[in-house]
């Protein structure tokens, strides 16, 4: 007979999820937002905090600080750092800060898009789909456990248009940015 499954993991994930919706992942840690704008998460009965200009600036500064060391690792070093997080996806694009809007990707393409950019030497700013943030939050948890250098990956709740405007970036569109 199998032992009863503990609900501690579920409770921890629920608490983590609520906290993740109310914070941003920047510089290797979950941080309090610098904006107070909120949005509903449809079908979940929760709200999330939207990133504002100062949040985007903080994520951009963390990425800029992390990029030289991340790029210096080389492809083999970055692959070692990402081992176990993803098993597929090809490097794409040039080093820099890659903006990936999860709403533009199916959930199954999210990890390859993010890890492919990381393998190529880019820092990644991930914007979860506000209607379905769980895949992006789960991926960030896995990347955090991989102990990537602080600032190499960030998660902000916000729109691709706002991020592109505040960081002068173009969102990763798999149909346009091969």
From N to C, what is the helix and strand string?
Answer: HEEEEHHEHEHEHE
User: For the residues shown, what is the average pLDDT?
Assistant: 79
Ends apart, CA distance between termini: 51 Å
Helicity, as a percent range: 40-55%
Protein name: Aldehyde dehydrogenase domain-containing protein
GO molecular function: oxidoreductase activity
Keywords: Oxidoreductase
Pfam families: Aldedh
Describe this structure in words.
This protein is of the alpha/beta class. The chain is 43% helix and 16% strand. It has one domain (8-172): 3-Layer(aba) Sandwich (Aldehyde Dehydrogenase, Chain A, domain 1). The protein has helices at residues 8-21, 53-72, 74-82, 107-119, 134-145, 160-167; strands spanning 24-26, 29-31, 38-41, 46-49, 97-101, 123-127, 153-155, 171-172. The radius of gyration is 16 Å and the shape is globular. Keywords: Oxidoreductase. It holds the Pfam family Aldedh. InterPro entries: Ald_DH/histidinol_DH (IPR016161), Ald_DH_N (IPR016162), Aldehyde_DH_dom (IPR015590).
């Amino acid at each position: 007979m199998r032992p009863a499954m503990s609900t501690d993991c579920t409770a921890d994930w629920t608490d983590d999820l609520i906290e993740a919706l109310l914070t941003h992942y920047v510089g290797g840690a979950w941080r309090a937002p610098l904006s107070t704008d909120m949005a509903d998460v449809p079908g979940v009965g929760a709200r999330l905090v939207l990133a504002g200009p100062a949040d985007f600036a903080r994520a951009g500064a963390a990425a800029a600080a992390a990029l030289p060391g991340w790029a210096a690792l080389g492809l083999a070093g970055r692959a070692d750092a990402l081992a176990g997080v993803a098993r597929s996806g090809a490097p794409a694009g040039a080093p820099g800060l890659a903006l990936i809007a999860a709403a533009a990707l199916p959930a199954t393409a999210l990890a390859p898009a993010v890890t492919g950019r990381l393998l190529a030497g880019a820092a990644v700013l991930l914007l979860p789909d506000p209607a379905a943030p769980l895949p992006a939050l789960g991926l960030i948890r896995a990347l955090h456990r991989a102990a990537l250098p602080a600032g190499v990956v960030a998660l902000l709740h916000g729109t691709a248009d706002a991020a592109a405007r505040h960081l002068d970036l173009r969102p990763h569109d798999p149909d346009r940015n091969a």
